[in-house]
Design goal:
The complex is a heterodimer of chains A (291) and B (271).
Chain A (H helix, E strand, L loop, with lengths): L22 H30 L3 H6 L11 H8 L1 H34 L5 H13 L2 H14 L6 H25 L3 H9 L4 H12 L1 H17 L2 H5 L8 H6 L2 E2 L2 E2 L1 H22 L3 H7 L3
Antiparallel strand pairs in A: 1-2
Helix pairs in contact in A: 1-13, 3-4, 3-13, 4-7, 4-10, 5-7, 7-10, 8-9, 10-13
Chain B lengths: L1 H18 L1 E5 L2 E4 L3 H8 L1 H31 L5 H11 L6 H11 L6 H8 L10 H29 L3 H9 L4 H29 L3 H6 L11 H11 L3 H31 L1
Antiparallel strand pairs in B: 1-2
Classes of the chains: A mainly alpha (291), B mainly alpha (271).
């Protein structure tokens, strides 16, 4: 093969697609295929948005691509009925609580795993990870009994604690990767300069891994926000999250699909905002975590 | 440690407790050893659910991993197009599980959903509430839609960590696209793909909410996976003992298979 048209040391960024012969094909085919795939990704979400603009009667009547008689009535119900928007706030409160608890536990733990070798550290690391593998269904009943016994049942704190089951291992895992990327010399230099450990940790170390903290918070948010089984079992009235409220939209006239779809769209929004903020770090988060 | 105890150790020990006792009411507990384990192991429903679960995990892994890698290869490297594509890709990951179920429940309906209507229009008899094959196709497609982005993002992260010098060297050597993929990109993606396979296996093996919302385990028990069976047992019939025994074995199976995966993939990336 020869490359008469391109200098060898040319700009390397799109080097991927620069192989002769398929270069032209790829230039057209790649965006096309990707576009098709993204369309496949967006269609179900579009369908949800379409339903959210319609009345239940219209939804059951047709499968036209565009919404018939679109209106914002469903959203109006969501934001004026306290039974709905309180559940939304409940969801947000346990997700944020969970993020706070997870980070405050996982940061020191991850630091220990990345900086010290101690007896059985590998085993503890793997054991932590097994918690991520446990099906929530396994822990359902014990959680229910435990939290009922200590009076946490039906509070956001109960759900936040229960979600630590799978978020803490993941957080330790991701943070450990980021922390191991920080050279140990930085710790040593700080001690030589007379920093105490807490001061070093808070003012020097944490800023260095803030991308990692952002990514971890994103994953905690994601897994806590989307979980239903534990959230449903551990709450009844006071702390009912929105995902649970959605499963109970059955009224006298049957299932209100329009309202349900609107609630669904509303649950996607915070996620979309969070993604937008961390879009450049999402990929990194896992790449740096050790296996 | 108190937190770990609260959210992991105590619940797990409670399960162990249940699994070896016969509980008639408060204060009336009898130690019965391994009877519940025996009962759960003999339950034909559990056997069916286990086989279905294995088949399901196998199918989704076989589709999602190659598809995710392909999507990652297609993604633009940088710029606003890349950001936009990543955001669209990541969207399904942040939709609550039961909303995913709800979306697909409607989306795949022949009379009111886009997918169901299109499939029926082109002459495929598709009705997931009555036909087991359609139900399976719906759930597999839903899982592919939901989780392929995770694999794609991971693979993309792996691809981005490859220094450009590698590509330049390959170009000088006259390597074709396939050779670049086989000898540069694939080996470099191994560690992230290990994570992808592990996460996807664990999560697909534990899948509960989505099939529960879409098909409720039906038609018949065609899509009753292990979690659904377990929750039916524990909450529906309130058979705490067998359910706890079942949970423990379920957990052990996941642990075992994950460990095997982990070891195999570690070996593969070491050699």
């Amino acid at each position: 093969m020869t490359y008469p048209t391109e200098p060898l040391a040319g700009p390397a960024a799109p080097a991927f697609a620069r192989f002769r012969g398929i270069a032209l094909n790829r230039r057209l085919a790649a965006p096309l295929l990707l576009g098709l795939y993204l369309a496949f990704q967006m269609l179900p979400i579009y369908w949800l948005m379409r339903m959210s603009l319609m009345t239940p009667g219209d939804i059951m009547a047709s499968a036209e691509f565009l919404p018939t008689a679109p209106s914002l009535g469903n959203y109006r119900t969501l934001f004026t009925d306290p039974a709905w928007y309180m559940t939304y706030l409940n969801s947000l409160s346990y997700v944020i609580l969970n993020m706070a608890i997870t980070l405050s536990v996982a940061l020191p733990a991850a630091y220990a795993f990345s900086r010290y070798r101690f007896l059985g550290d590998k085993h503890v690391f793997f054991w932590l990870f097994t918690n991520r593998m446990a099906p929530p269904a396994v822990f359902l009943l014990p959680f229910f009994q435990l939290y009922s016994a200590v009076g946490l049942f039906d509070t956001p704190l109960a759900v936040a604690l229960a979600h630590c089951l799978f978020n803490v291992p993941l957080a330790v895992w991701i943070l450990e990767g980021f922390m191991s990327g920080v050279p140990r010399e930085i710790d040593e230099t700080a001690y030589v300069d007379g920093y105490s450990f807490p001061r070093f940790f808070l003012t020097v170390f944490l800023p260095l891994i803030r991308a990692g903290i952002g990514v971890t918070a994103f994953f905690c948010f994601m897994f806590s926000w989307v979980e239903l089984l534990l959230a449903r079992t551990l709450t009844s009235v006071e702390a009912k999250p929105i995902v649970v409220a959605m499963t109970r939209t059955v009224s006298a006239s049957g299932l209100d699909w329009g309202l349900m779809a609107a609630a669904g769209v509303v649950t996607i929004l915070p996620g979309a905002c969070v993604i937008w903020f961390v879009r450049n770090y999402i990929a990194k988060g896992f790449a740096l975590g050790r296996v | 440690m108190a937190l770990v105890a609260f959210s992991a150790v105590i619940p797990l020990m409670t399960v162990v407790n249940y699994s070896v006792q016969d509980i008639f009411g408060p204060g009336q507990r009898y130690f019965i050893g391994v009877d519940w384990f025996r009962e759960a192991l003999r339950d034909p429903e559990v056997h069916g659910a286990f086989l279905r679960q294995l088949a399901f995990s196998g199918i989704v892994l076989a589709i999602e991993i190659p598809l995710g890698v392909a999507v990652a290869l297609l993604l633009p490297k940088a710029g606003w197009k890349s950001s936009l594509a990543i955001v669209i890709l990541a969207l399904p990951l942040l939709i609550p599980f039961n909303v995913v179920g709800t979306i697909w429940q409607v989306y795949a309906r022949p009379e009111i959903g886009f997918l169901g209507r299109v499939l029926n229009d082109i002459g495929i008899d598709f009705n997931y509430t009555g036909d087991a094959v359609s139900a399976w196709a719906t759930i597999v497609l839903m899982d592919v839609w939901h989780w392929t982005p995770l694999v794609a993002l991971l693979a993309f992260a792996g691809l981005r960590s490859i220094p450009d010098a590698y590509y330049q060297a390959a170009r000088i050597d006259g390597a074709g696209r396939l050779a670049v993929f086989r000898f540069i990109e694939l080996p470099k993606m191994k560690s992230v793909l290990t994570i992808a396979v592990l996460l996807r296996f664990m999560d697909s093996f534990m899948i509960y909410t989505e099939p529960f919302v879409v098909t409720g385990g039906g038609p018949g028990s065609a899509t009753t996976f292990l979690s659904i069976r377990l929750v039916n047992m524990a909450v529906g019939q309130f058979d705490l003992g067998p359910a706890a025994a079942f949970s423990l074995m379920y957990f052990l199976v996941i642990l075992l298979i994950s460990y095997v995966f982990y070891t195999i993939l570690q070996r593969a990336s070491a050699s």
